[in-house]
Amino acid sequence: MRASERAYRELREEILDGVLAPGAALAEVEQANRLGVSRTPVREALARLEADGLATAASARVLQVSELSPASITALYELREALEEQAARLAATRRDPARFTELHDRLAEAPALLDAGEAGLRTYYDVVDALDEEIDAATANPMLVAALRSARLHSARVRRLARHNPERLRAAASEHLLIVEAIIAGDASLAAHASHVHLHMSLRHALASIESRQPDGHRVA
Predict the structure, then answer these.
(1) Structural domain boundaries in the chain
(2) pLDDT recorded at residue 200
(3) What tens digit of pLDDT does each residue of 180-197 get?
(4) Domain 70-213 has CATH 1.20.120.530
(5) What is the pTM assigned to this prediction?
(6) Which residues contact 11 (CB under 8 A, 6 or more apart)?
(7) What CATH architecture is 3-65?
């Protein structure tokens, strides 16, 4: 693997996992020393992160991890609504019911997984990722899938806000189950509506989480 690719992947994962927090400086020399590579691969990696929207200019020479603001999260969910509701509609009309029935059985185990600590949580997120992949495949629309994957890159950062909120995780699992049931039934309208409800509830929780992290006197109106 090229050094620039390795640097890009490591920095991207650290941003998505929150190791590099929103607003953290991405100084070229510092990151090169930390990752054990020269400045050129880091420069290339940072350019890709900026193109992804995961990094923004803090000054003429320094990038920083993109902020997670109420405005940026709302914009992301407006995009997700357009993409994911349409994907659910298409999946409901083009799906292989057997594949979604298997996912339904796995999602039905979510309450037990969410009670099983960090290992169970990772398994739950694996099931959610599998659902995304199955919906992508069922849409049979490569352009829609490309747009969905771009949006999910940013959604991964927002998803961390619910990682340690058992109540929201259980609610989200139930919402995913309803989406799958609608797809299995071939009900495109219900699948889109279930996706809409899930996104609405996820956005509401994300904004509340961001609000709770604001310092006193800097709360979002």
Answers:
(1) 3-65, 70-213
(2) 97
(3) 999 999 999 999 999 999
(4) yes
(5) 0.85
(6) 20, 26, 31, 35, 45, 46, 49
(7) Orthogonal Bundle (1.10)
